[in-house]
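Dear Dr. H.,

I hope your travels went smoothly. While you were away I took the liberty of generating a structure for the chain from your last submission, since the lab meeting agenda had it listed for discussion. I wanted you to have the full record in hand beforehand rather than looking at slides cold. The sequence, exactly as received, is reproduced here:
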Amino acid sequence: MEKVYLCLGGNIGDTRNYLQNAVAMIGRRIGRIVSKSAVYQSEPWGFNAEQMFLNQVVVAETELEPHAVLELCLQIEAELGRTRSGNGYEPRTIDIDIVFFGQQIISQPDLQVPHPLMHRRNFVLRPLCDVAADFVHPVFGLTVRQLAAVCDDKAVVRK
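The corresponding predicted structure, in token form, is as follows:
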């Protein structure tokens, strides 16, 4: 069993319901949910949008390989109405990112773990601190709490 740390977020439609459904689907398809953060409201990151985002981090224990988890995350997103235009960051019903997969380091075109931008995003770090503040980033050698303390993202993120 490996712990997978997933960041969920969205800003279209009934986002709280999308988060709840995604968590339930993760629990059924990926692995037992062992922890989940509070839900946070955050400003869009990397683009302008009228609607604020809701974000949450979920930790699941899984027997699946990383690429299988990625495929299931994409499948869950699609089932919950996520569409991708290919134009970069945009509003969405739900987004599920793999932040950490145990201490694994994966660098492939379709999957990078740890998530390569997680340390620059308060909307990931704040909820991640709820469930894994002392988890040590396998590349940077710093805890999530330490990464949050030095993050220069000034976007508003609140419970």
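Two observations you may find useful: The chain has four helices and eight strands. The domain at 2-158 is CATH 3.30.70.560 (Alpha-Beta Plaits).

With kind regards,
E. W.
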